[in-house]
Design brief:
Helix content: over 70%
Number of helices: 12
Structural class: mainly alpha
Shape: elongated
Strand content: 5-15%
Number of strands: 3
Distance between the termini: 27 Å
Radius of gyration: 20 Å
Largest sheet: 3 strands, antiparallel
Length: about 220
Amino acid sequence: MDRIEAAVAAGNTDLRALGFWKVVARVKPDRLLVHEHADQIGRIDTAAFRAGVRLRVPVWAGNLLLGAGIVAGGIAVWLAFAWSTSFWKGLALLAAGGIWAVAVHSPAHWAVGRAIGLRFTDYFLGGPPPPRPGLKTDYATYLRADPDSRAWMHASGAIATKLAPFMALAFWPASGAPGWSAIALLALGAFQIVTDVTLSTKSSDWKRFARERAVARSREP
């Protein structure tokens, strides 16, 4: 760990090449190793992240911005009821589902993470195109948290995103919006579920969920 920390301080932020994640995988199942090394692992992870990611803001700013997005989705629902033209009603309702799908993901991670004792260091833009908001975990607190709880923290964002179009859809019967908007919201929800099954289980939240559940099973009672 000292060698890796020195390499990161010298400007090498390729943690995989440095063997950092292999060390982390060795530490995770062992409570004593977590106790001994969590702080150093957290320092290394944060230093590498901040050296390599420029588009980032404080956690409070990211939560404020995404909270505004959640409010904007609510305003779109209100417009779906307020407008008299069927087309605009449908467009507003569809906008609500899309906005919520983006805006609720990271705040769900944050809320569940804080509830289980995690801290977070930054919001950032990342992921495959188009760029989307991400939330960087303070890895020292992550390691100290119960691995089952960590798993559900990862799942929380994915679940919130998948629910978002169906939350907007719940307003459709009373809004007077056209049928195509309901179909579009159903299609958006179904598309997100398919991408979770085909992609997220291999590279994103559900992969991390499975990884942390495996760590929980590997720990001695």
